[in-house]
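Long-time lurker. I teach an intro course on protein structure, and each term I like to show students one example going from raw sequence to a predicted 3D structure in token notation. This year I'd like something fresh instead of my usual example. Would anyone be willing to generate the tokens for the chain below so I can use it in lecture? Attribution to the forum is fine with me.
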Amino acid sequence: MPPDRELRLAMRWALVPAHHGQEPPAELKAAYDWLETEARAVTDLDKPEVFRDVQYRLSFRLDGKPSGGETFRRRRRALNAALEYAVAAGVLSEDPLHRVHMARLTANDAVDPRVLVNANQGRQLLAAVSYVGSWHRARGRRLVAFFAVIYFAALRPAEVVGLRRADCHLPDAGWGTLTPRETRPVSGKQWTDSGERHDRRGLKAREADTDRPVPIPPVLVALLRNHLSEFGTAKDGRVFGNERGGVVGSSTYWRVWEDAREFALPPDRVASPLAGRPYDLRHACITRWLNAGVPIAEIARRVGNSPEVIHRRYHGCIDGHEEAANAKIAKALEEEGDTV
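-- Reply from a regular --
Happy to contribute to a lecture. Here you go:
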């Protein structure tokens, strides 16, 4: 059997739709041929001992060390998707995951408070974005409102990329509304039906025809109106486009964000996790809403998560929640006459 690393590379190559019917690269041919002729049949997964071994191996890396909990959960989701396809294709009679019990790993995806920016840091970072690149090319200025949407409306970056002018209600004064309807994640040309790098998908965990209106404060309304006045829309009506009117690539806004952090933050903060990713602006926005007392159910609706996810991920980011709870308990004790 070829080494595991070569087998994985060969499998990755074989799964690309554009490679169907082609000969594999020379360096992967031996591993590819082994997978075609020697790998176990999918029907062997009906044997409990075989399937248990597959699940066990999901918990380890190629070097034999244990994988992280989130890595295991991601692999298990991928395995489940493959098994459901095998059932639909008639290769398997049922999904083996429904028969075999495995201890569930406790999720540990709580947001690290160190990534959260305060109001002053948020303003400094948005201002720093405008200084990235030359004034003529406007590389940074094109993305000030882009990052502001994440920071003030908690949209995911891929949702901001897909935001259209028709999705925006931007009145002359007061609050506005954004109603994202699609995401544009980077998938790579070989994975999309259109041949574009950015896939077209509906909102995460929602039906394709489901809206998610998000009220936005006047400061964001003004930023978006100024952006549209200066740069217009992309060729297909999206709010944010690159210099050629195409889709803003993730590598583009990541580079701008990294440069902006160096402009806005002192050296010790640049080396810290503080706002290390554009997505951390979403965490800062959700935390701000929680600390303002917005009900968790309403926050969950606005950001496209379940209340359980909001509570689990942000429970350590709410300022003063322990003091408030203690005050309520103390008041109850006083009313019961149990004070010493």
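Some talking points for your students: The first strand starts at residue 168 and ends at 169. The beta strands are 168-169, 176-178, 214-216.
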